[in-house]
Amino acid sequence: MDLSHMSHRARRAFLKKLKRKRKRQELAKEIVEREIEELNRLQLSPSYQAQQAKELELAALEAKERERNEEIWQEREREAQRQWEENNRQKILSKQREEETQRKIKAEWESKQIESKKFIPQSKPQDVHEQQSSDLPPWHLPPPPVPIPPVIEQVPHGAIVSTVMEKCSFFRKTGACRYGFLCSRLHQYPSRYDDIIESFNIADDQDVGALDEPIDNSCLVLQIPKMFTHYHLDLTKNTSSEDQDSGLEVDESQLLSDYHEFYHDVRMELESRWGKISVIRTCRNLADHLRGSVYVEFSRGPSAAWDAAEACNGRWFAGRKLTCTVVRLGGGWREAICGLYHRGKCPKGDLHCNFLHVFLNPGETSNDLQKTLWRHVGRLISPVDNNDHGDRGRPSTVKSHPNNSSLIHRHQHHRDRREVRRQSSTSISSHSRSSSPIGNHHSSRSKNNYRNSRLSEYHSHRKSKRNKHTSSGSRRSSLNRSPSISSSSVHKKHKKHMKERSHKRIKRAKENCTDILNETRSAMILPAARILKQKPSIWVEINLAVAKYKPINLGQGFPDILPKQHVLESLTMLGKPDVSPFLHQYTRSMGHPRLVTVLSKLYTSFLRCDRKLYSESGSLQVDSFGPDREIDPLKEVIITVGAYGSLFTAISALVDPGDEVIIMDPSFDCYTPMTVMAGGVPIYVPLRPQLNDGEELISDCWKLDIKELESKITSKTKVLLLNTPHNPLGKVFNREELESIADVCIRHNLVCISDEVYEWLVFPPNQHIKIASLPGMWSRTLTIGSAGKTFSVTGWKLGWTIGPANLMQAMQLHQQNTVYTCPTPLQEAVARSLEIELSLMNTHESYFNEMCALIEPKGRNMVKKLNEIGMIAVRPTGGYFLVADISKLHVPSNELDKNESLSYDVKFNNWMMQNKGVSAIPMSVFYSTSNQHLGSKYLRFCFFKEDSTLNSAYEILKKW
Description:
The protein has about 950 residues and is an alpha/beta fold. Among the domains are: about 20-75, no CATH class; about 200-215 and about 390-425 and about 495-535, no CATH class; about 215-235 and about 250-380, RRM (RNA recognition motif) domain (Alpha-Beta Plaits); about 540-560 and about 850-960, Aspartate Aminotransferase, domain 1 (Alpha-Beta Complex); about 590-610 and about 620-690 and about 700-840, Aspartate Aminotransferase, domain 2 (3-Layer(aba) Sandwich).
């Protein structure tokens, strides 16, 4: 770590802290070693062996008891099934007897009617009403109402009782409140459309001159709470902290230096994206609602602040997730910033003051800050300009907005005529007295003189107009020439006429503004920011391309052969009418009892730690899951919607925002987006090929560098994602590699999520070893399996996770609030199929052995065919994918895509799909952005297809 930027005192403190940390680590290591020695000594003692023998006997008795309880439970279930069938049969017979009785009664009645040949008399309305009333339940009078005494409040005489919630003054001025949502007063957040709505929210009886009146000195700014973080602020806030390093001293110059560096970085980034910044301020208050908050006002106006808030919200800065909002400073910067702080007179200090104590920006002094505040207020309301008859020192309430520019131009078009009418009207002159005194440099006498001069101009204008039309014989010219008509009556008529016109104009403006707002609001409905960050899935793009060009699809991993016969029969049996109706209803949220029971039986033997291999205690500690234990089906197994659901549920249940997740490149493409959606930070460690001349190229040549893995681990690292057999490489991790990974997980306290969906597709002589079976790994490992990959039924979308009860409980809490449960019929069918396979385990009739024997020759044949056309194929040791090097194949460069942003494997696959009629998957999509170059010359092929499909593809490739 570079310590050159620290001061001498800070460096010494840091080194002392590091020394103490090392001593604590050494002491902890010695304690662990002593405990291991003590454990070994106890294991060799006769008392311990006797205790172990007793525990074995108890475990055997418990196993027998569980088997007996299971038999009793199954017998009860069979008895309940028989009872239900008997009840159902009795109901059917009873229903048949009742129908037969009704039929006989009806036949007798019809025969009597035929014999008597009489009509049935119609019932009277009174009889019908009595018959209907007789069928109703008896009437019960409701209980009498309980009188509630009125609450009389003492209201002072003459007081006005308001039902509107009072606004919080501190939130109005600073955009933040110490009490947050617990505040008893109203916190009114602005909307992007407030400025447009306020511009046209004018009563019908108001004159158009009200459009030129100011609202206030407020301004809309971007607020980023707690963006600037500094340990000095935390230390000075908690002076009584018991932290051993709380006494470190940090001078003011160091704090300002760090802030200036932060200021330049933030300002540069914001201005590069949303335009010039007029004001940027950062709080140094110690209260939680203001500490480190950044306020930004853009020169472009509120629209830039809204755009910046939408783009920055949810981003990460300095290890924290930003929450950006737009707030209104009701009194402007002058009322928001504490004016006494930089004078050294603030009596409440940084912790208790509710106004902004801001840092001085680079090159700024306290006097400069005061002057800037007053100049800023002056700019809000400019002085009167005699050349501009429309403004007169008042800012227009119609804000600039891209959707109402035409509306603003219409108001500006008639501004001069409105000014003339406003100066001659006594009602409009009253508005001039309500303007803000800030920036108004005219006295009342000068205002009256100016109004009188404008009034005389108006009279002279009217007089010249009358003289101009003297020769015409119109009625209006006669009236104008008549000395009996005074100028005041003409003014009143003209004012009434123009007022009607202004009302019509305002009404049209409101209608246009409503249309603009509806269009703008519908266009601004956006999804969540965390979803917008996700890239489109490669599978969506491949499906579209396959549907368009109709190639032979060797890219996606789904078989085109039928599954085993007993698997299909297990599903079709559930459609018969004699099955229990409960198999078509909800089942347990964590999984169907029959399925979790058979899974626990299946995996218990595979997950038990073999103590013969680890008799000597080393860095790997032996945990409680050994040969004397079985998986608890009700607490340690959970059924999910496919392996996808297992991965998403596990990551969401374990990863907190900011936690780091180790992902090995290349990896399945869903690992990264699932981590990001959970708030985690993916850290990539690549698998690098280690090739030797003369050796066969197999997937096991890709190795994990343990030193590189440990170098990526920090204090925030929480989860390691492992995939074996690996997709897309087809690599099966051996015992030595898994032991190294387990050692890292134990020493750094990491949780391992082991994706093992291809566990039954391991080609001899390789063996699949579950990392959870290694010493010390059961308590920190989640093992994921898939029914779709196990029985070649990927459309069933059933997966499972097996692990310790505490981690399973976290996954259950997540699942019960998302999907709740998985389809019961599919779980029943998978359970029946696994029971059959469990009885055939380790025999030639087992589907697991048949599947390996079926697809291994397919993989070897594909390697041979791809090598014949010039590719360099990598022989897999597990799964049903292989990768091939395409760098040796000659492809005309003029036929490839010219898009430079695409890697070579993507261009090659697109060209092969369009020109050769065969599709694969580019390997670069399985790599992170920093490691994409490692996969730019490889393609992934799936060889678990029908022989006819593979032969058709080989015939096409022969013509290369």
